[in-house]
Q: What sequence folds into this?
């Protein structure tokens, strides 16, 4: 632990995720949570009080008051990363940006340009890489002892609760924007390859009838740079009786080996009088210490290490740009009915 | 049982499947197995003796000796249905043709023409329709109480044993020709819709290196006539350590309901000193009676009913033609890299 | 089919199970359903009309009107087999008696004596033996290639729906009487051994509080005649949200092999808006023919074969007596707190 | 982290577990690994060099050289805890003793007496309590919102690899001594109750024939202090083809709720050319930091907290004594064929 300097970090966006990141920073001895940014006044006041740090209405105000920050976590809604990220980068801060980097290639390119011009680093928060199920498979695949990837199939679905009740901005998103950044990032990481072309199809019927005019389900077929194939399926209309709000199953097939990775079932099924569910352990509070634990916490800890000078292989802004371009190409293919090239 | 007339049936092709169909006919009291056709002399002699019926080297010889047949089962290899089917149809026989109807649209059209000109009926042997797991889901979906189908995902894979050891003619086939007729037929039947366009991708690397120059894995994305989407994934390179030689999982998502249909696990797992396996009950001999049981036997029994005058809704030659055209379109899309229209 | 004589059979008890057995007899060409016995007048009239056969209020009346019966199916409630079985046996009829043979050793001995004095045969309806999952494992174990049985663990539970809503007579039964005859019969059959001693424990708290004064759950540990061990666990208080009304998992461990047999999950999971369930295929109507199918139907067909002279190895009255004695010993051990010997 | 005093700890026994505990202490900033004890000279020299701390041949030598220790981890073989634990306790050290506390009640009582006379604290290493699957269920059960426990069934088995290849001292142990301390501790913790009586049965046939004269499988039925029932089944003869070396499934049934806890399947299944396996994540090295993670590491961290003055509810020596008495009673019942009382 010797030689650690103290990362001084702000969190932009104090919703569920932003608050969690703030707490993760507060519990990390190598970091200091300096301040928050949150446009909503009641939320801002509440969170500032809970966490005991100043909170500002916008990034400009933040930067005005704090000229000694070393990093920022961008946890604004998916479509609202650009302004915060560009300003923080321009101020010389290293960034942790929630996935996806942006929901348009234009925004993603603007962030990338700002990061590269400022010479800062930006990590994109593809947190599943910190899930040991995936990281162990990645480690095994990287050894090449099981051959190269032939083909991956990833089903990542949500119950209809997510677009109809959980997200206020579902109509501006889609199962592709909300879910496929995860499954595509993992597919790229596992195969060590990038997508070069995509063909997508979808259905738009159930959610529009429920007042959410977006896609019910999207399927996308990618050709990868190593000539392997990746199929991503994501739906937003699964029944709410499913034992978990998300349904995630990923398969990797190599020359000699098949991996079946099930993320939703935790191993603990509880049947109550009226429903069955899988207990979820994604992020939890360690009972004795009160510390948060789980994959996003590990991600924040790695971001702090980066801020403190470590060389870690994390998903960077160029990678985030590729994912955004790819998901944009999914929507382009949905519109055109044709395969779409994904530019590097 | 009153009023049943006796179906008089020949089986063309006396391999594993043909012999099974012949036994199924012999155990059906409403049918008579009249004769067999088998080009290989040793197989012909052996099976003729085992079953106690005459066996001929070709269909012409069969028809010469037996002018009172009412039906024929065509169980020649996948690519060799045409000649047998056309001759038998022309002779006025109703047909049960193994799936796929043919492996070229040209052959499938020739069989269809022969059947329609002769005014006979032809059933295509999509035997999974007799699997109660699928037939019950079909019955429930047909009631429309769960809404319409939004999207189906069907993974039907084989271990590498199938193309490298089980099939002598794997290089002339593919995971698409061998497996997708099953999953596509089921998807059509469950949604009550036909495919109108397909986009496919595949990988060709592992099997060619093993001396079998065909596709390792194929994924195909179909737009259906009801605007639902069907994704079929089929691989031929799964490891032989899998607990079953095939790996089959089908998902159907409707407006309100999700069905997850797992075909490979039987519910009985056996672990021996050296391997784990799922016991398989596809076709088995009933212990007391020695009678064959299972889905293909039920299919033959229904074919006999048809021969004896019943009106049953069975997959007909036009349906078989559509499936063949669709799988041909899968291969066309693999070649062109573009979505391909499927003509009705 | 030649040489088959016609079994002439009556069904005593026209509840859910009795009606099903009656239909099974009517659809079997080697049997004739001659008449029914049912004490409840409205049920009797309804079922007589539905099935088109005469129905009587009691066995005496039945025997008075029909002196040419060859067999009877005893489908009265569990505790009410004795009188019907004894009278039918005394009249020279072969019997199929629902499991358990009786719910007291005294009743079971009276039936056994009547059967043996009359020189008739009696089959006890342990229908799981007709479940191919068990019969295949039994066949494999009987070959001894996997060594002998070391130890079996069988969990067979019901949701609380069964004792509180489905059965009117649950207070006169228990999870041991209702469920363990199945799991014990299978354990005996799989190991080819009989129980020689049992120790049992149970809990009585939840069901009494719900107004059903019987055991919530019972566990029983048997020493078998081959020195293997069988553990049976049965509960009647599982939550009604479980995907199936029963929960059945049986494990067999031999010298070299483990079998895990899961009966409840069918392979088809359906998630609706409000609940998840496993489709059940226990007894179903074959769509085309309208014929009943399933394990109890196969059992009835075998009983008909027996009536028509076949030699089939079926669970007989002595076996049924052993099972009843064993379950009675379970309750004796629950009362005494000591292991109880089971007399042969 | 302020105010933490430094725990100064020795590890007694430098086998697989002892080395892991030593590394866990070295990576904990609130602890110092002072020294090791290991009787085997080559192991002692190797581990001393790897860890960079002095290593002694026995506890006396350790205590002679280090009079400022605050705690000791006892990781000698199961049957060899007594001497080390008693000496360290007498020297005023707080202890973490691997489970089971001892393999005879006499030894366990001697350790308990030494601990209580010295006024030190002793934690017994029932590490599954640090498994979040169990700790979350425990937390939910403790809230009493799901009612009280009715009945638990715990299957915890090993493949035959464990007694025949992994353990040199299997003949001095049994599946009861090796596995049931885990499942009994969990059952006690989940129900918040202690065992008052046990009845056990077992089989001794396969392992003796393989040269390991101990029990193949043991089943034990406990009456608990709250009148709930616990059934533990443990076998040591499962086939080595199982996807994990251990097979662990625990069920808890309460008034209203059922928990099914599966520990062996991790969610990631890998099929290679020759076998299927579940990846295991029990203890793993965090890739970036090189730090060990997993439930035993969390346990050591809690022990360090205890050493540094925290009040934590950990399994203490009295609890360890009860578990040892209970497992001894299992063996007494195996010998007597009678239920055995477990004294508090």
A:
């Amino acid at each position: 632990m010797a030689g650690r300097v103290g990362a001084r970090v702000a969190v932009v966006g104090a919703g569920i995720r932003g608050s969690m990141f703030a707490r993760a920073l507060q519990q990390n001895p190598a970091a200091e949570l300096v301040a928050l940014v949150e446009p909503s006044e009641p939320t801002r006041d509440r969170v500032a009080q809970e966490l005991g740090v100043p909170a500002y209405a916008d990034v400009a105000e933040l930067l005005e008051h704090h000229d000694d920050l070393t990093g920022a976590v961008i946890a604004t809604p998916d479509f609202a990363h650009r302004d915060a990220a560009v300003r923080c980068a321009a101020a010389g801060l290293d960034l942790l940006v929630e996935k996806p980097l942006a929901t348009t290639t234009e925004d993603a390119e603007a962030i990338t340009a700002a990061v590269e011009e400022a010479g800062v680093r930006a990590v994109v928060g593809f947190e599943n890489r910190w899930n040991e199920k995936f990281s162990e498979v990645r480690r095994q695949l990287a050894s090449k002892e099981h051959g190269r990837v032939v083909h991956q199939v990833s089903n990542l679905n949500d119950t209809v609760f997510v677009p109809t009740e959980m997200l206020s901005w579902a109509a501006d998103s889609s199962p592709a924007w909300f879910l496929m950044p995860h499954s595509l990032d993992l597919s790229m990481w596992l195969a060590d390859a990038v997508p070069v072309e995509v063909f997508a199809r979808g259905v738009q019927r159930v959610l529009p009838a429920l007042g959410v005019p977006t896609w019910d389900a999207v399927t996308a077929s990618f050709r990868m740079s190593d000539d392997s194939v990746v199929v991503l399926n994501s739906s937003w209309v699964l029944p709410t009786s499913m034992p978990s709000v998300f349904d995630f199953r990923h398969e990797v097939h190599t020359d000699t080996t098949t991996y079946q990775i099930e993320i939703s079932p935790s191993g603990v099924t509880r049947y109550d009088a009226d429903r069955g569910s899988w207990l979820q352990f994604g992020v939890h509070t360690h009972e004795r210490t009160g510390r948060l634990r789980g994959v996003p916490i590990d991600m924040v800890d790695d971001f702090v290490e980066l801020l403190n000078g470590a060389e870690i292989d994390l998903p960077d802004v160029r990678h985030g740009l590729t994912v955004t371009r790819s998901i944009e190409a999914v929507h382009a293919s949905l519109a055109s009915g044709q395969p779409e090239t994904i530019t590097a």
In short: The mean pLDDT of chain A is 95. The domain at 7-128+289-315 of chain A is CATH 3.40.50.720 (Rossmann fold). The longest helix of chain A spans residues 317-336.
